[in-house]
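Quick one: structure tokens for this chain, please?
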Amino acid sequence: MSPALPLPALHASHSGTWLRPANGSTGAVSKGEAIMAAADTPVLIVNAPLVASRLGYPDLSGLDLLELFAFVHPARFCVPTPRGLAQALDLDAPEGDEHVPLFLQQAAARLIENCESADWPEREGAWSALQSLVRMRWPWAQVLAPHVAKPERAEKWLFSRLPEWEEAAERPAPSQVVLSDAQVLGELDHLTGEGSERREGQRAYATDAARTFAPRDKRGVPHLLLAQAGTGIGKTLGYLSPASLWSKEAGGTVWVSTYTKNLQRQLRRESRRAWPSERPDGSQPVVVRKGRENYLCLLNLEDALQGGFSGRPAILAQLVARWAAYSQDGDMIGGDLPGWLGTLFRKRGIAALTDQRGECIYAGCPHYRKCFIEHAARASAQADLVIANHALVMVNAARGRDHAQRPTRIIFDEGHHVFEAADSIFAAALTGQEAIELRRWIIGPERGSRGRRRGLAARLADVASYDEDGGEAVEDAIEAAHALPSDGWMQRLHDGEPSGPLEALLAAVRATTYARDESGSQEAGYGIETEASGLTGELIEAAGDAAEALAAIRKPLMKLGTRLEAILADAPDWLDAQGRARIEGARHSLGWRVDLVAAWESLLDRLGGPADPEFVDWLAVDRSPGSSAGVREFDIGIHRHWLDPMKPFAKVVLEPAHGVMLTSATLTDRTNDGDPWESAIARSGAEHVETMPLLSAAESPFDYASRAEVLIVTDIRKGDLPALAGAYARLIEASEGGVLGLFTAIRRMRAVHGRIADRLARAGLPLYAQHVDPIDTGTLVDIFRDDPRASLLGTDALRDGVDVPGHSLRCVVMEQVPWPRPDILHKARRAAAKDNGGGGNAYDDRIIRARLAQAFGRLIRHGEDSGHFVVLSPAFPSRLLTAFPPGTPVIRLTLEEALQRVAAGVSGEEAPTSASAEAKEEEDS
């Protein structure tokens, strides 16, 4: 038996609570006894917030082994469960809940042993960090102190240890090359490896992908490929083959854009087949790029370490500093920072350490040369492959600081999400939260606020003192920005006492939205909204006053931008390279804010006037479920979206590019009526450029007919929550875990979880849920993937992008047909589709089929996977059955019959096919 640390240990799950004294045996205890024991003396626990929620005691604290793991092994992966800790520490996993307390004592002992080891790889910096944590009274500090030896020489502070980036010459324009099919297939054979299976679909896909790298024939007209790639054809290596070949021969950069962080991680792994981790000169041929808000801001961290944080957040800052010294790239969201670390403290703690608000001072920062964001930006300029996300690619194309670095060869993987990404990026929203952020950016922190955030005057003090007109513009902008909402704006609106023209506008928006609300407040978790038409004179007058206030802000900002350009053009003697870079950064930020304010003015000018057919405008009050009052408002505002967001996407992203590929397993619409490519073309932007896209399709090689079944349960009545919960519990029991449950409403998901979690836990079947367990979504998926007996409930975020191959996911259960929510934007697009001859129902059906196909795609990830896809909907329309791969057996049956098939495993030999099932059923809309 492994040695055990002599400290009491506590474990709580849905099946019970167990306590083990420092020197004694484990016993079952009540929740009250567990709480008293934890309050009496620090106890060993794993994931304190999760244990606290299981005990119903939010103030629980103790010696959390996850915090200890983050200190001892920063930047290492660990699933935040006893089983996950056992794997990370090479210990035997506990066989049941009653064995967990002893395991916690053993795991704590192992971690402390690692600190005493001569070859502890993360020793550097540990002693210094521990001294700070002792002063902060971190519960683990006194336990660790005797085991972390003081180094012979003083340790360098984090900020002196981090490497600096170096300037590099601008990369020349790529050569114009044409890739032959033989070259591409040769590269594909090299990447897949000797002796690998030869997949004809993958080979055709790779040669089609190569067409997008051909020299462009006409300015503003890229080579455009839409590629349907069935699950399992090997699309990643299919497009990396021509991409790696082109980057090598042309000397250019290829951008691969994804929608999910999971695919980014997969791409990074797959890219190692084509590129080394480093070139001979030490530079990176493959770089992962994300938005600024994903990376650790060193200036924010320094502020936190020097007193900007207090209490528990200050401990978090120390653990983040430990991680920063060993991180690969400083990525805090989806990188090598454990996703669970922030939830052990508070989410805002992690957010406060990133550049959430565009407050970066660029070269004015003392850590500029070591900045993780600048490292990634410079590395990507020299990279052969940049792995990014849809939002970053679009933002970079729209307002990137360096035009030479804007992507010209782009592969949009998960291409079915390009439409919704564009819909978000090219939208405008004048809300209270957005306006108060602009105020803070211009003015700086409110009186009494803590932190390092600085306004324009502080950031450009030297410029203002040198250039009189520039200084005057800064003063005018600050004075005008006082018209924007300030801290406490929401409470003032509730009290009927708005301050200033923008708050008065928001008060009128709120009053109008509530006056027109017809929802009956039945879904308290949803916001409420109303069309921006037929508005009252009071609201229109308030909009005019707000527009004048915004113009008064925009004009001095534009003047300031002009003055900064003049300073750069005729630079004073004191302006060194660092100062020039800082002013360039300020110009970029100013341009972004000027465009933002101009968009708000345009939005307000439209109110009360004729509708613009290009846009959809509405008023909204954003709400979420509250703790006691039932509902909590968190924002109010006016929204504008393009009716077709692919118009700006085509102008900003497609036209400047030379080659663009959109690919996905669900790019086309599986329908028996009409052209399956129609919606893919419409949602790609192809209709708005002067070219016909190349269309390519490769079918999945998986044998769905024998490895999967779609079961449509016909005897669970809609709205019967007890029956719904019972069905989920029995399906999880029949499958013995491994169930991914998908819901269309958070409220129902929470209710089902609350009814069945304890029952399943007593059977040794752990159940986790989004918006219930205090764990981030990525970590929940890690836990689910790690434990074949676990099940996971979630919403839209789990319907796409979750990759859990093998036995851990063997059954997907949807509570009902995923109908689109009939909000104002959806209704407008549905009406436009009907006017264009497509029909409103057909528009909805395309969306539903795509969602069903994405959800079904979670089930079979590899050729050896098998399982059931269950829909608890007696009124499942037969016309939607084409969403599933051809040949997949589809059976309408009772819950009892479904349980028998799930318990027995997949056997589709005698099941009716989707076509025969459809023929037997009447159409039900």
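Residues 909-925 have pLDDT under 50 and may be disordered.
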